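note to self: the first set is below, dont mix up w the second
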Amino acid sequence: MNITQGQRLALGSIGIADRANLSISIQSGHVIDMVCFGLDAQSKLSDDRYMVFFNQPSAPGDAVKLVAPGQFEINLAALPASIDRLVFTAAIDGAGAMKDIADSRFVITAPGNPTGANCAFSGSTFSVEKAIMVADIYRKNGEWRLQANLQGFSEGLDALVRHFGGEVLDAPPAPPVQATVSLEKKIAAAAPALISLAKKAQISLEKNNLTHVKAQVAVVLDASGSMNGQYSRGHVQEVLNRLIPLAVAFDDDASLDVFAFGAKPVHLSPATLSNYSNFIETDHRGWRKWEVGARVNDEPKAMRMVMDHYRRNGSKLPVYILFLSDGGVHENRAITKLMVEAASQPFFWQFVGLGGHNYGILEKLDDMAGRVVDNCNFFAMDNLSDLSEEALYDCLMEEFPAWLKEARNKGIITG
């Protein structure tokens, strides 16, 4: 059923009893926050647990869940008697107005039933409004009803919160809080499965005063034959998953540069929030098809490829490089020479040993003399599960802050 602004109808008339899916799709170049407010009989937010948004994606009892950007699952039977109305809203975060949006719509259906109600709208409905009440679900005479609201506010999300009786701090939040919200928004918008990792990564970044650092992020993956078990058991994919939030936090284009090596190195596609989830099995036809030559290690060739890649763009932004190996390192002299060379350039190397032995010079680089700055760190673990996610992020960030300070002081980096 197509409905228009202001139209009201009983949910039962479109086949909805207690459970419903409501999807809001707004075509816009702006960042838009989608929020559900659960209101009492006075249309006030008397219990802020029923404000459902990216930072609180579920109400008590899963009465309302934000399962993806703009997509809500609703269980009306789980709402307490004190909640009389659900108001689904959209607010522009930052500059812009709702008049800028293109063809948009909201759709409400019962689970498993493609029929329901559809309401189209566009920027022609609005002018300076930055926030709109898109749709209401409310109780009347013992039944739940729907209204296509589409009323606007000249201010953004803060105005909506105040309108519904909520409190907004007058003072702006401290920078770390701003950074947390920003990172979680980016993750929630494209990869909600990573929200938990994003929160843990952000805590580590805040502890190390890294929330405003801009850097390029790379991972170099040992793809030699001895690593087959780590790949087939999903451990390498999990390493990449845990790095993605750091790449999003540091990198303007929210991507992770990926390299792999055996006897020769290969430059893979960037890993992003849209392609990360099965990257190891799919990129360049999957890890079994990566053209790394004979399944032996040649670390210096991989290091040279990475350094040459970043030198070509001429940037002095820092480059954080995680280099994963299961050992068998024997090119000690060549690696030492490369790390001395790299020390005068914007590269920080975090070497991680995974489930192997004989890490050779990688274990000694941290104390190696003859470098302009200490540009390397190393730690090893038998299994990824040996470290909690929080502990892993702390290990990954252990020496990066000190290198940033020293590299800035010596003019090696500008970021």
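second set (the one i keep forgetting abt)
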Amino acid sequence: MSYRGRGNEELLAQQAERESAARTYPRHLPFAIREAEGVTVTDMDGDEYYDCLAGAGTLALGHNHPRVIDAMERVLEADRPLHTLDISTPAKERFVDSLFESLPDEFARSAKVQFCSPAGTDAVEAALKLVKTATGNRSVLGFQGAYHGMTSGALSLMGDTDAKDPVPGLMSDVHHLPYPNDYRCPFGIGGEEGHRTASRYVERLLEDPESGITEPAGVILEPVQGEAGAVPAPDGWLREIRRITREREIPLIVDEIQTGLGRTGERYAFEHADVVPDVLTLSKAVGGGLPLAVVVYDESLDVWEPGAHAGTFRGNQLAMAAGEATIDYVLEHDLADHAADVGARLRDRLEATAERFDAVGDVRGRGLMLGVEFVDRDDEWRGPGPHAPAGDLAEAVQAECFDRGLVVELGGRRSATARFLPPLIVSASQVDEIASIFDEAVASVLEGRKPAPEVRG
């Protein structure tokens, strides 16, 4: 069937009729995408948008980057295999070469890599299985506010209880620890004292025989909590968690599925704190826009049996070619440094917006992984932080941004945080335009008090 000449409204109606009620993005981003290039997408009606969602951070080089397209075309033109399970190919070996080249030397020297099913959540499942097999222990320590995926084990680690309520059979041996957050500190302190208190709490919990926590198989954390609203872990806290886990020989799993490969201003976000994890989960950017997920871990943990973790599509050759091209381009063009520079520029502009409007409670994040949280100062709020998160206001701003040609996603408590995840190739001038659109959208909503739009069915 040809869809030439059809518009957004027709495709959205057809999608609503045929797809499941679990679909999410079309409810708040009501368009169908016709084409895309770089930092922009064009919908079926011919309208163009800056894409600050970018496949939830997947598209490090933006849409249809020539380097990535060329790499995939070479595979297809040479009649290379497209699917090989875990059998070696030149494309796979080149991908691993590039992946290891991107890692800190200290980590790469003793690293092993496991390919798994091509979603990040399966990398988390594999990491959990790995540390449980290596240690013989069952319990896992995660953090409040965490998001690690939607499969059973990964979902058990999630801090959002609403998402877990209807799901039976989740792991019962997960313990959630306080994650440092300057704006919504779980201890009501914030700043350096807040993150010191958070790390001391973890250490004392592990030392306390009455804590109810058995010897853990591992600790898993995000160096920047993405779905929680771009909440960065303080470097000092991450160093303390690394010390605590190392002294107790507890494997530290760092989930960089969203942060990895330059997004935060370093190749990997754990490098801000100058630490090395035992296990690293990666997906999104390392596949160059195609499905690919891996677990990279210290060889001392490599004790599982053949076939202990598999996945039919772990041999996706196109994704490996696209991933190799993406990693090489990120390294050759120092896109991590670029993300730090233009990310600081974008943050400065977002903070200028925050200074104008009391309804903006916090601007935070790292590199090109930023969040702007909206608050309601009149709402009685008993949770952490000074003011209630204003999800309705954030939704209205998101809709106004969309009408003005800017795609942003929401996250955080009550979905009150506008999140910015533009491709790493975004230019300074594009950042300025994105910030201007956002500022105008915030002004329009706050000065006109536009209500949030109704959610589409």
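remember for set 2: The mean pLDDT is 92.
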